[in-house]
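Researcher: I'm preparing a figure for a lab meeting and need a structural model of a single chain. I don't have an experimental structure, so a prediction will have to do for now. The sequence is pasted below. Please return the structure as tokens so I can convert it later.
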Amino acid sequence: MSDSVWQLPLLAFRDAIESRSTPGCGAAAAVSADFGLALALKGLRLGDARHPDDERGELIVSGDTLRDSLAQSADDDVAAFEAYLEATRLPHDTPEQSRQRDLARQEAIVQACRVPLRIARACCEGLALCQQAEPWTPASLKSDTRAGARLLHAGLSAVLVGLDANLERVTDDALRHSLADARHTLQREADDWLDRLA
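Model: Understood. Here is the structure written out token by token.
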């Protein structure tokens, strides 16, 4: 695969998702959420083109930063899972090799939990931005903002499904519980934001 999912044509990205181990649900969720954020930014940008305003401009800058973060997270998710696959292929013929492989696999699986959490946090921030964008968005484009919010929420929910599968393989109980707590907090926050936008 290319260095970034963003260098792939949409059809190639879709085909890679269904035919290869990476990209997986984390990258697909991040890309979907990024498109959702783009819908919210469209309303802000077109509104600002008609009636420039400093406060709206600040929202656009915040949205651009968040959009870039989500875009990078799609690639980070691919890298995290590829690191896990590489760790599983390490030699394990001796006890020391087995120990080293187990450590590498654990480090990789923890990273494969942290990246989805980062994607979910960005989705929550995107949902908050959708609410902030609403009064600054022309009436004809508010449906795009609301649709974008639903894509952000769906992206968050989808990436957390993948996180749940990875959490089962985290062997450190305290870390697993901490990651799970963060996961549930983010889902609740996202649900609350979506309710406010309904």
